[in-house]
Design goal:
Radius of gyration: 31 Å
Strand content: 5-15%
Helix content: 40-55%
Number of helices: 28
Structural class: alpha+beta
Number of strands: 14
Largest sheet: 6 strands, antiparallel
Length: about 725
């Protein structure tokens, strides 16, 4: 290797090593600030790893009875990443117990930085031009796709998946240029890691198979070496995972949505299919044959598991109502609105930089001729595939992660090559050309720097305070440090599930993996308090977490009644897009607590009998509560004697932080002269956040004198919790 190549390589590697970790950690390591994890999937992974470690065995990764209360649900994900993450936690905790959490948070940063270094090293050793190498290294500096996988404490499997995919692709590029068999074996090992780390790998390798089929149909020059690379590496991946499954067969099933036999079987078939492609010439008859066989195989898989096939299609297509509201499932570019919706273009620039406007040019750049490498065409085609997938759903950009913007290096090198060889620039000195491109590079990076400087992923302070309060002030449950079933669960909109699990260390009914969404929806869409209370009692809901200052559009919640037709079970079943939408969601249990706090009438809801506020706070002294925690209680029973058919009233003052409310309830006296109240608040229930008056006031019409009389009663906490009837002698009536 020449001295100039070594110098450029060292400069590129040094730039990445110094700048990538600094950007990924957002400078807060230097400032010594405490990190708060705001990525819900990262919280999920860390929590179950932490639980397994606390219980003393990685075997505890098989089930998660904590995040999907009240079910004991089997984790259907491949195990490689869990084992890897568990080993990282165990090693850091053993060697550096005082710094373990800090080091574990660096895990994704190190992996993503390593991915960038491997890409630069690979391009260098494949002898790509030095200028292209510089452009590539410059485009590997952090962009939005890099932060999707490599931020501090970003513990989702994306950071290792992106590393595995890049090594697999780079192995294919090396094999394309050299045809050394060692790249087949290396690619096979990492294809096995992809399959064993990501449940969505079936979709990735399906895309690989279709990619091979299209290359074969168009008789691409890549076929000679790329098809053998694919069928051999896919076969090795299937063998590796088959051996793992044979060692512990009880962990794996036949479902498309749970990693298991069907995934490995599909890999063997894909390997066989690509092998067959490599042995046939792409004549019209053979094309018809292969497309027909492919269609038959897909139909057979659908017939083997029709329920999960339908569910999978709903998820992948993004038509399920829940999936429609998830940000990472939204398109980066809305092509139908590209010229009228500036936000679509803005989102594309935020993710891919300014050079996204040259993307059509990139698709037609003759990469193989430009860089004099067959592998350049392979890299170009895969960048096109992943980019188009991410245009449809943002999440697919994570497959290439930190390397998603390498396409910019192609564009920059094409411009460089065009300008430096053109007649116009022949009379301009190289120094001026360098200055032009330095300015261009700074312009290209400016959008990413701006985007990364304004994006804040910290949790809202009010939410974090609420989670901490729940952890410190609600009864601890089983399940986190042992395998016992939790004693109760917390109901919240599913977005908050992993946060409550991780920060409050309490079980929830629905979480960010969409588990338990039916249970949440059934309760929240209840049309009266008795119905909501009954389901809460059946499912063990003790607390309800609400965020009144969050705007919930009707489209986010108006499909909830459709879940009532499904059976209760762990996991999640996608709904079709055309489910019936309700127009009455403003009168549901959800809106009653979120907007009326259970203190006012709304729809068929009166003043609360079973749900009471026990915690609330605001964001930055906002007049609106940011979070409220309600507790479900049986309610103290108060029976009064009064004039038949008259109206009786009770009232109790409630102070929530600095806001004063009145719990006021009225009821009609029956014809036999009795009226009953169920009261969820006790007198002097004071924990520093919510407090009540000393007495509950009573107002009614005496059945004896036919005059208004008033009284007072002191309601004990024990009576509210157990649902006791208040003794008559404790009530003072004033005539």
């Amino acid at each position: 290797m020449s001295k100039s190549r070594i110098s450029v390589l060292i400069a590129c590697l040094a730039m990445l090593v110094l700048l990538l970790p600094l950007w990924f950690c957002n400078n807060r390591i230097i400032k010594g600030e405490k990190f708060e994890i705001s990525d819900p999937d990262s919280l999920f992974y860390y929590r179950i790893i932490d639980q397994a470690y606390q219980k003393g065995s990685e075997k505890e990764l098989d089930y998660d009875n904590y995040g999907n209360f009240p079910y004991n649900f089997k984790i259907g994900y491949p195990r490689f990443y869990f084992w890897f993450f568990y080993a990282v936690k165990a090693l850091c905790t053993k060697l550096f117990p005082s710094k373990a959490e800090f080091l574990i948070g660096l895990f994704p940063v190190i992996t993503t930085t390593l991915t960038a270094l491997i890409i630069v090293l690979a391009l260098c050793y494949m002898k790509y031009p030095l200028v292209f190498l510089i452009f590539a290294a410059f485009m590997l500096l952090p962009t939005a796709p890099a932060f999707y996988v490599g931020g501090y404490s970003k513990w989702d499997y994306d950071h290792v998946l992106s590393l595995y995919v890049w090594i697999w692709l780079l192995s294919a590029m090396f094999y394309q240029d050299t045809q050394h068999k060692k790249w087949l074996y290396l690619g096979g090992v990492f294809a096995g890691l992809i399959l064993g780390s990501w449940i969505g790998s079936l979709l990735l390798f399906f895309t690989v198979t279709i990619f091979c089929l299209l290359l074969w149909c168009f008789n691409s020059p890549l076929c000679k070496r790329y098809l053998p690379f694919c069928y051999i590496t896919i076969f090795i991946a299937a063998v590796i995972n088959s051996l793992i499954m044979l060692v512990s067969p009880g962990r794996y099933g036949y479902s498309l949505l749970d990693f298991g036999i069907i995934h490995v079987s599909a890999m063997f078939l894909a390997s066989l299919g690509i092998y067959a492609l490599s042995k046939f010439n792409p004549s019209n008859k053979s094309k018809i044959l292969f497309f027909s066989v492919s269609a038959i195989v897909i139909v057979l898989f659908a017939l083997i598991d029709p329920t999960d096939t339908k569910d999978l299609l709903e998820r992948v297509s993004g038509t399920d109502p829940v999936f429609l509201e998830i940000n990472e499932l939204q398109p980066i570019i809305y092509f139908s609105k590209l010229f009228v919706n500036i936000k679509s273009l803005e989102k594309a620039i935020n993710n891919y930089g300014f050079l996204i406007v040259f993307y059509p040019l990139f698709m037609f750049i003759p990469a193989q001729k430009l860089l004099k490498r067959e592998s350049a065409l392979l890299l170009q085609l895969w960048l096109i595939v992943v980019a188009f997938a991410s245009f449809y759903q943002t999440r697919y950009i994570r497959i290439f992660g930190v390397g998603s913007c390498i396409y910019s290096a192609f564009i920059l090198y094409f411009l460089w090559n065009s300008l430096t060889t053109s007649y116009i620039f022949k009379n301009i000195s190289k120094a001026k050309v360098y200055c032009i491109f330095v300015f261009l590079l700074l312009m290209v990076r400016s959008s990413s720097v701006w985007y990364l400087s304004i994006v804040k992923n910290d949790l809202r302070e009010s939410e974090l305070d609420a989670y901490n309060w729940i952890r410190d002030n609600t009864p601890k449950t089983s399940g986190y440090y042992d395998n016992k079933k939790p004693e109760y669960g917390i109901l919240a909109y599913w977005d908050y599930g992993h946060f409550i699990n991780y920060y409050a260390q309490r079980p929830v009914l629905a979480n960010n993996m969409q588990n338990g969404v039916k249970n949440m929806a059934d309760i929240f869409s209840s049309k009266n308090e008795e119905s909501a209370y009954r389901i809460c009692e059946d499912l063990g809901v003790k607390y309800v977490f609400m965020t009144p200052d969050r705007l919930f559009l009707p489209s986010i919640i108006n499909f909830w009644p459709a879940y009532s037709k499904l059976e209760r079970s762990s996991g999640y079943r996608a709904l079709p897009y055309n489910v019936e939408r309700s127009t009455d969601c403003d009168n549901w249990f959800f809106a009653w607590l979120n907007k009326s706090f259970g203190l006012h009438n709304r729809g068929d809801f009166g003043v609360s009998s079973y749900f009471r506020m026990v915690f609330a706070n605001s964001e930055n002294n906002s007049p609106i509560f940011s979070t409220i925690l309600f507790e479900r209680v049986k309610g103290a029973k108060l029976i009064l004697e009064a004039k038949p058919n008259s109206t009786a009233n009770i009232s109790l003052g409630i102070k929530v932080r600095n806001k004063i409310f009145e719990y006021r309830k009225e009821a009609k006296v029956s014809e036999n002269g009795y009226v009953s109240f169920i009261i969820p608040y006790s007198c002097y229930f004071n924990n520093g956040v919510v407090s009540t008056g000393e007495i509950c006031n009573i107002s009614l019409v005496s059945r004896e004198t036919d005059k208004n009389i008033s009284g007072k009663v002191s309601i004990k906490e024990r009576d509210v919790i157990l649902g006791n009837q208040i003794a008559t002698k404790s009530i003072l009536i004033f005539k």
